[in-house]
């Protein structure tokens, strides 16, 4: 059975990606129905909601999870949910939209999601639970750390390194060879010319980094 964690906007987009690939959800995991954006399943009708506690009581061998929690900057919830279910023995689906391009020499680890019209070019390495969102470009030899999010339309030139739990904002541009640390936020539309240390926010054109508050 395929279960979605979360039921909001990112989960709804993932549901479409899954359906195009021939997968139907068997239900979703959320504390309540507030903010629900998921459509009814073509196979099971109205999707059943279960709590984290109910999901954790299931047999991990009978369930495959997909992380439907998105991010507008804070990736802690998405990361903690992934780690909690992994510690309990569950596995996460890695998925790429049919309109995405993923090079055969790229490496995508467990739970990675590559959305519509995104590009992942040769020898890129995407660690666990990464999102490459709609229309984003991850160029050759990039390394993207676990739980990070490359937002809509962002462009990472060749040989860029991104740490864990870092949010690259919509339409941001990271120049070739730049290193972005862990727990960073790169603002929407920023143009990053220089390395950004762990725990910093970088905004503007060219981007200026400051310590996260």
Could you characterize the architecture of this molecule?
The protein has 213 residues and is α/β, with parallel strands linked by helices. The protein has three helices and 24 strands. The strands form four sheets. It has an eight-stranded mixed beta sheet with strand order 6-9-12-15-18-21-23-24, covered by helices on one side. The protein has a six-stranded parallel beta sheet with strand order 7-10-13-16-19-22, with no helix packed on it. The longest helix has 12 residues, at 9-20. The protein starts with a strand and ends with a strand.
Shape: globular
Give the strand order of the largest sheet, numbering strands 1, 2, ... along the chain. 6-9-12-15-18-21-23-24
Radius of gyration: 17 Å
Helicity, in percent? Answer: 10-25%
The ordered string of helix (H) and strand (E) elements is EHEEHEHEEEEEEEEEEEEEEEEEEEE
Report the end-to-end length measured between terminal Cα atoms. Answer: 41 Å
Estimate nothing, just give the exact number of structural domains: 2
Structural class: alpha/beta
- Most strands sheet: 8 strands, mixed
Mean pLDDT: 95
Report low-confidence residues grouped into runs of 5 or more: none
Instruction: Label the CATH architecture of the largest domain.
Output: 3 Solenoid
Question: How much of the polypeptide forms β-strand, as a percent range?
Answer: 25-35%
Count of individual helical segments: 3
């Amino acid at each position: 059975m395929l279960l979605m964690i979360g039921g909001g906007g990112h989960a709804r987009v993932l549901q479409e990606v899954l359906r195009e690939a021939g997968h139907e959800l068997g239900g979703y995991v959320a504390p309540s129905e507030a903010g629900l954006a998921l459509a009814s399943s073509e196979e099971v009708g109205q999707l059943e909601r279960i709590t984290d506690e109910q999901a954790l009581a299931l047999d991990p061998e009978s369930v495959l999870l997909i992380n439907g929690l998105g991010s507008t900057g804070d990736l802690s919830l998405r990361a903690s949910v992934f780690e909690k279910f992994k510690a309990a023995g569950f596995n996460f689906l890695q998925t790429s939209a049919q309109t995405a391009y993923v090079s055969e020499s790229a490496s995508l680890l467990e739970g990675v999601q590559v959305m519509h019209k995104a590009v992942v070019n040769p020898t890129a390495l995407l660690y666990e639970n990464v999102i490459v969102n709609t229309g984003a470009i991850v160029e050759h030899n990039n390394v993207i750390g676990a739980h990070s999010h490359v937002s809509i339309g962002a462009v990472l030139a060749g040989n860029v390194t991104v740490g864990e739990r870092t949010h690259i904002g919509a339409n941001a541009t990271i120049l070739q060879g730049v290193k972005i640390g862990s727990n960073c936020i790169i603002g929407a539309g920023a143009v990053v010319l220089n390395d950004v240390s762990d725990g910093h926010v970088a905004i503007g054109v060219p981007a200026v980094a400051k310590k996260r508050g």
